[in-house]
Give the backbone structure.
Amino acid sequence: MAMMFPNLDRSMGPSDTLKIECGACGRRSTWTRKQAFALLGAGSTPADIRWRLACAGCKVKGRARVWI
Ligand SMILES: [Zn+2]
């Protein structure tokens, strides 16, 4: 089940991964801490990420579910 977190920097350890699931088509991605920081910014909150990401499969934006 999705775990809420304050932001990436405070929540991800070096070996943690960020899991992202599209709420529209169910496509899942897993990013390393390094990838997540580079692509989203270390201070990103779950809400920031949800609104920023567009699905690589169906292109829907704003529906991503994210957890660590
Ligand atoms: Zn999708």
